[in-house]
Amino acid sequence: MKTEIAQRMKGFSPFYVMELLQRAKQLQAEGRDIVHMEVGEPDFSTPEIIVEASLKYIQMAEVKYTEAAGLPVLRTEISKYYKNTYAVDVDPKRIFITPGASGAFLLALGVTLNPAEEILMADPCYPCNNNFVQLYGGKSKFIGVNANSDYQLTADLIKQNWTKNSRGVLVASPSNPTGTVISEVELGNSIQQVNELAGCFFSDEIYHGLVYGKKANSALEFSDEVFVINSFSKYFSMTGWRIGWLVVPEYFIDPVERLAQNIFISTATHSQYAALAAFTDKNILELEHRKQQFEKRRDFLYENLLRLGFEIAVKPEGAFYIYANCAKFTDDSFQFAKDLLEQQGVAVTPGKDFGDNLSNIHLRFAYTASIAKMTVAIERLERFLCQ
Amino acid sequence: MKTEIAQRMKGFSPFYVMELLQRAKQLQAEGRDIVHMEVGEPDFSTPEIIVEASLKYIQMAEVKYTEAAGLPVLRTEISKYYKNTYAVDVDPKRIFITPGASGAFLLALGVTLNPAEEILMADPCYPCNNNFVQLYGGKSKFIGVNANSDYQLTADLIKQNWTKNSRGVLVASPSNPTGTVISEVELGNSIQQVNELAGCFFSDEIYHGLVYGKKANSALEFSDEVFVINSFSKYFSMTGWRIGWLVVPEYFIDPVERLAQNIFISTATHSQYAALAAFTDKNILELEHRKQQFEKRRDFLYENLLRLGFEIAVKPEGAFYIYANCAKFTDDSFQFAKDLLEQQGVAVTPGKDFGDNLSNIHLRFAYTASIAKMTVAIERLERFLCQ
């Protein structure tokens, strides 16, 4: 057999943090205590009510395939959630249950993106975004963003960067790695701009729910002609269950359904039944309590990073990340992260994982660890900086 | 937004059976009794021991992400399974846990197939095969097969049909829809032929385990330079759990891992822990008992279809399908299937779903229903034919 690997894999961005993760595991195996601030997974366990719903289902029923689009009753629950949370009407038929947000990206780009077409996205952004585009032979057009636009794209940036090869725009709010939220006005303008350009608007809303002191707007508040990617992983703490969803414009229902049938058959059934309990009042109450804890952690980490001399150009308002400028200490944040892990046992993610835009002087800190653990991390970080 | 749908979706083969399924549901809603012989899903529920393992895991632990390649302990179990079942050594590092066989196909073709390259496959075959190829901009080269080669490709057919654009060959044994098994000699020759042509050999082994009166050979018995797709859905009765696996040649480990990280993150964790119980002696005993029941159903259906005048060119030796020639009754098997459903409440799959090779005079009967139910179906079928 030829050892030739498909071309598309050459364009795949690596995860530099994997090298750090492997080393962290090694160190832990040797008995070292490591504080993990690199992990994009909530440390909270799945809420009891969701776990119970899953157990009950598995005990009572047979775990067979569902409809490719997902359980109708779950799609209806999500539709109600849009009504309650954003005051928008979304026909359940436009909602597809997917194996995580990953599955939602596979579908959304699969039905829209032709080879060689471009998707505009912010730099810094989540590395998988580019890789989904690469998968389908497309091109990512990275647009450097900064504090001036809260690290988000704007209608002007979209217009300036749009070419005849552009097919769509991806906005992630709250953003990974910056935690910043796009303003209501800018989101509305951006969607209008993309619609005028006859492009596709992809709104990554997987960190919705985890927004502090304000409310994030869904792209669906402005238009039905958008693709919205969401997930039960973050706000609902359901990472390992692998379940998310995609909202599509009406005329994309048919191709999305055909694609889902073929590449998934359906999403794990016991996860779908578990997710049915996610929207109950009791559960939302629990999740709001957790959100308050995330907010306290954000404040703790934000204040301490500033105190130690990191620059944080925009105070993050959502997700569980702080993207900190470490120019005061290094112009090689990857090496800095390696040394910090090696010497002090604190794992963080190098900016390099999120693009080329000043990434050598940025680090992403995740506050998916308790304040107690982060207190240890900050002490160690302080020691590291004072050497 | 432009309503343009990505080009790749145009090449997607439809599932004609969906039309029948929808109508069957309608009729059921109206109170009609329908015997389902169109369903590619075992009617057996997931074995108790697997269900128990999942419940125990969900109660005891947190359902978090696993490694992208899957739980190391599960990969080791699968490696042992290859040793015990086929007497082959497979390094667990070459085994990737995936969201069903669907996920395995996504990975295997994703790391090998470039746009415009061809994959050779038999006609008739499972419709999703072509659609995975379309997804990546490739081309399916359908090779008409018949009873002469047990509806399987042969080394000669591969050689005759190979062109400079060919990238690989897909063999499914037991085959869906024909249930036929490729012979040991022909499988070995085909793999050797593809290796000489420097192509990729993809072996769909998802119906392994469900082979009657003989043993199917794994492609891994002949070469390490093959991609093997397998699943917990069929033999292990775990459809709704969405879990399968992919074995890859050693030098494809790195790209497959990168692709899995990006497009799945990981496979549902509670399904992976459930699958750990799949290989226990107690469970295999239960599954072998079920296999005997499938064999009895195969015999029942085979004899009755012959008695009614259907032709079955090769007695199927595996899976749970019979691909029957209905030329004696019709040259439009799709219309035949619609009429049979409408008039007698028996649902079967039209040949049209599996290709163009005499598909207008073929029907696929699935024996995923009990003999009691199939007895009713045969009576109704007889009535239908005697009108």
Give your account of this protein's structure.
The structure is a homodimer of 387-residue chains. With 387 residues, chain A is an alpha/beta fold. Chain A folds into two domains: 7-45 and 283-385, Aspartate Aminotransferase, domain 1, CATH 3.90.1150.10; 48-280, Type I PLP-dependent aspartate aminotransferase-like (Major domain) (Aspartate Aminotransferase, domain 2). Chain A has twelve helices and twelve strands. A seven-stranded mixed beta sheet of chain A has the order 2-8-7-6-5-3-4, with helices on both faces. In chain A, strands 9-12-11 form a three-stranded antiparallel beta sheet, covered by helices on one side. In chain A, helix 7 (184-196) links the parallel strand 5 and strand 6. The radius of gyration of chain A is 21 Å and the shape is globular. The model of chain A has no long low-confidence stretch (mean pLDDT 96). The interface between A and B is large, with 71 and 71 residues.
